[in-house]
Amino acid sequence: MKKHIPNFITCLNLLCGCLAIYFILKHNDLTTAAYLVVLAAVLDFMDGMVARVLHAYSEIGKQLDSLADMVSFGVVPGAMMLQLMTRSLEESPAGTDLPFWLPFTGFIITIFSGLRLAKFNIDTRQTSSFIGVPTPASTLFVISLPLILGYDAFGLTSVILNPYVLLGITLLFSYLLVAELPLFALKFKSFAWKGNEIRFIFLGLAVLFLIGLNVTAIPLIIGLYILLSFLKPSAI
């Protein structure tokens, strides 16, 4: 029975992704979709942790995890970019002269998410760290945008809803997903300071950012994650 528990958690991740797509495309409710993706990310972290604790690894679990991630962290950010770019063309002065098909470029991030997940499954270098930005991290950046629009304590609406900014974010993260960039994983073999310095520093700063900046901190946290990986690759 215990071997099925991680797979059940993975299926809940997949369900969250499916519901997020429904709210994005049916109701244009990006905020609800964003919270569903946050829940999917928590479940994605939990299934691996539970599998390690229960020693319940399986090949089907590995494949199911990738398929669930493709929906929650591949299709969802593409669909969200589609809606954000559509809105930007309608509301931003910069969008009046741009082609009607521009919002569909949001699905570039979906394509590269698929490539990143396929690479991860066959790359033996990524057992305890990552090469390229993980799909959940990329997606958390994207889903933070509608949350910031709803909160917007810093007047960032005009920046976020600039179609060139959204296209730039799409292309940048599409590249980062498959780039040969070594990044640390939040996998603790122990909770000792030694060997986990970069992880504790990252988590501490992330908490401080969230307390001070609310949801606006999310893009900064993703940027911090990438920056710390560059500064101390030996800790990865």
Q: How would you characterize the overall build of this protein?
A:
- The protein has 236 residues and is mostly helical.
- Helix 2 (30-54) runs antiparallel to helix 3 (59-91), helix 3 runs parallel beside helix 5 and helix 4 (108-122) packs parallel to helix 7.
- It has a two-stranded antiparallel ribbon with strand order 1-2.
- The model has no long low-confidence stretch (mean pLDDT 92).
- It has a single domain, classed as Four Helix Bundle (Hemerythrin (Met), subunit A) (Up-down Bundle).
- The protein has helices at 5-27, 30-54, 59-91, 108-122, 135-151, 157-160, 163-178, 197-213, 217-231, and strands spanning 129-131, 182-184.
Q: Look up the CATH topology.
A: Four Helix Bundle (Hemerythrin (Met), subunit A)
Global morphology = globular
Largest sheet: 2 strands, antiparallel
**CATH superfamily caption:** CDP-alcohol phosphotransferase transmembrane (TM) domain
CATH architecture descriptor name: Up-down Bundle
H/E order of the elements? Answer: HHHHEHHHEHH
* Through-space gap between termini: 34 Å
Number of helices: 9
Overall pLDDT level: 92
Descriptors:
mainly alpha; Four Helix Bundle (Hemerythrin (Met), subunit A); 3% strand; two-stranded antiparallel sheet; 236 residues
